[in-house]
Amino acid sequence: MLSSDRVVGDLRSYFGIGLPPDAAPFTGGWFEHLAGGGDRSETADRVTAEDLVAVQTLSVTVPAPVALDVLEGRLGVQLSGLLRAVPADIDMVDADASVLAGGSPADQAWRLLCEQRGVNWVIAGKVLARKRPRLLPVYDRIVRCAVGQPRSFWLALHTALREDDAALHRGLLALREAAGVPETVSALRVCDVAVWMTHRALGHRCP
Questions:
Q1: How many domains does the chain have?
Q2: Measured CA distances, 55 to 12, 47, 60, 61, 187 (Å)
Q3: Do 190 and 11 contact (CB within 8 A), yes or no?
Q4: Where in the sequence is the domain holding 165, given as residue range(s)?
Q5: Dihedral in degrees, nearest 10, Cα atoms 25, 26, 28, 30
Q6: Which parts of the chain register pLDDT below 70?
Q7: What whole-number distance in Å separates Cα of residue 165 and Cα of residue 149?
Q8: Is residue 59 one of the residues assigned to a domain?
Q9: CA distance 66 to 48
């Protein structure tokens, strides 16, 4: 699936590469680039207003009370403490599985967000993917349906990326290059967009 010409076309459409003047790219193409990205050094360990807007480009919204707590309250302090323990300069394929496992700082941050009223697993995952785009993937119900609802998507994807001398990871980078997608878009995001676009086009009724 990930080696097809259609995937290259999907990536170009999603990120607005080579589109005619009257065609609009997906708003999600702004997710990693808005305001310089969520993992830039000066803001990598705190969630900013720009991060919350970036998450909206992926069709979810952090509820206002939670957003305010993240920006100005105790929740933001707690998240920052956890983010400082999550590597910002490593790809998932190169990370030790312990960085992604249950009980890790990344997992604790995800669970902390999921505990907030109006924040589900999709929203929590997208917030963290904005902060650690090379390490933590975007994950929603469409991708979950496509990959068969693994018990731990992070660990399942980590295993898949490392198999056969990182063949999948290298393939994703090759797709990125073929589509002309900027190198600032991570391999994880290429995978997300490729799976999401393909599964969506097939018309599945995802639970």
A1: 1
A2: 21, 11, 6, 7, 18
A3: yes
A4: 5-199
A5: 20
A6: 1-3, 204
A7: 25
A8: yes
A9: 13
69-98: burial string, b at 16+ Cβ within 10 Å, e else: bbbeeebbebbeebbeebebeebbbebeee
Nearest to 137 by CA among 167, 110, 174: 110
Report the pLDDT value the prediction gives residue 3, as an integer from 0 to 100: 59
In a domain, 183, yes or no: yes
Tell me, what's the pLDDT at 2?
64
Residue 205 lies in a domain: no
What's residue 1's pLDDT? 53
Global pTM reads 0.95
Rounded CA gap, 67 and 57, in Å? 16
- Convert the pLDDT of each residue in 153-183 to its tens digit: 999 999 999 999 999 999 999 999 999 999 9
How many angstroms separate the CA atoms of 193 and 15, rounded?
Answer: 9
> What ranges in the chain are assigned the alpha helix state H?
5-14, 49-56, 64-72, 74-83, 105-114, 121-131, 141-147, 153-179, 187-201
Give which of 180, 181, 172, 95 is closest to 132, Cα–Cα.
95
